[in-house]
């Protein structure tokens, strides 16, 4: 089970907006680029100015970013804007954006950088495992339990917690440990699913 499974419903809500943007000449690559630039800028801002109330921007931006990701996909698939450059922008932009948005949480953790950085590394590895599905003759894999959308919920909730004045303490080490285990599980699921799909083809 993954939040990603709700994507089709989310797209149905945003489809009229995607059509309107396409009619105005907005491209999928432009949407993808804007999403990545804002994500990196927000991550850098929170890294250098980690004031608790600013972390409320994290869940708000994650929600908007999920919308932009859905829109750029619809522009590409439904409005004839698929491109090789777009594929690179989409995958690289997502990973770089995630790293930028997760990093501020590592920097405010009193337990040190290592636990959260392990989660950041494994998060990037899950996306690599998903992309490799295409390299072995399967589809791009989005299996959970802790895919990109699920991580957006996790870090969005953490952003609300920090903004409300909640302290990071010893318990966050357990949180990062559980997240790391779920990410390893996600990687294994994506590899297994990719192998099964490729074999079936």
What's the structural blueprint in terms of helices and strands?
Layout: H1 7-23, H2 28-48, H3 57-78, H4 84-107, H5 114-135, H6 148-163, H7 171-200
Give a quick set of tags describing it.
mainly alpha; 201 residues; 76% helix; single chain; 7 helices
Notes on the structure:
The protein is mainly alpha-helical and 201 residues long. The chain is 76% helix and 0% strand. It is built from 7 helices and no strands. Helix 1 crosses helix 3 and helix 3 runs antiparallel to helix 6. The mean pLDDT is 94.
Question: Brief overview, please?
Answer:
By secondary structure, this protein is mainly α. The protein has helices spanning 7-23, 28-48, 57-78, 84-107, 114-135, 148-163, 171-200. The protein is globular.
Count of discrete alpha- or pi-helical segments spanning 4 or more residues: 7
Low-confidence stretches: none
Quantity of strands, as a count: 0
**Radius of gyration, taken over Cα atoms and rounded to an integer in Å:** 17 Å
Q: What sort of overall outline do the alpha carbons produce when their principal axes are compared?
A: globular
- What is the structural class? mainly alpha
Overall mean pLDDT score?
A: 94
